[in-house]
Amino acid sequence: MATGTFDILHPGHALFLEKAKELGGKDAVLAVVIARDSTVEKRKRIPIIPQEQRLEMIKSLKPVDEAYLGHEGDMLKIVEEIKPDIIAIGSDQSHDVEKLQELLDKRGIKAKVIRVEDYMFGELDSTCKIIKRIKHTEFNDKTGEL
Fold first, then answer.
1. Contact at 8 Å (CB) between 126 and 4?
2. Which helix or strand (DSSP H or E) is residue 116 part of?
3. How much is the pLDDT for 51?
């Protein structure tokens, strides 16, 4: 299982999902959980892309076998439903792997938490950098409107 916001998809998202799937071995099934808009607003910012559209985009990616919207409030409820063997955490995600593992163990969830160390560095390697670029770009269509 991999989780995230996946707002404004970029190559780093694809790399994370590829590496997450590899953690499960040759016949792995990758389930991806997309954070709900309300969760993103609480933890990051107002999402640019609505949750349903982010879900559809993730479903279309090659390494993804299944995709779901997370639950509001209890982030482990979806984990209990899917029952993954491994939960992949991205290199730039703020989750504390040890604390998350402790929470899973306390709930009797037998998944192992592993941080994916690979990261795709580049000028636009995060959604926030892409948003900043867009905000500072002038757009003129053929009618001359901004």
1. no
2. none
3. 93
As a 3-state breakdown, the chain gives helix, strand, coil percent values, each rounded to 5, of 35, 15, 50
pTM of the predicted structure, to 2 decimals: 0.84
Residues pairing with 114 in the sheet? 88
DSSP 52-87: HHHHHHHHTSTT-SEEEEPPSS-TTHHHHHH--SEE
Q: Could you tell me the sign of the dihedral formed by the alpha carbons of 125, 128, 133, 138, in that order?
A: positive
Neighbouring CB atoms inside 10 A of 12's CB total 20
Distance between CA 128 and CA 45 in Å, rounded? 10
pLDDT in tens, 29-78: 999 999 998 888 887 778 889 999 999 999 999 999 999 999 988 889 99
CATH number of 2-120: 3.40.50.620
Residue-range domain boundaries for the chain: 2-120
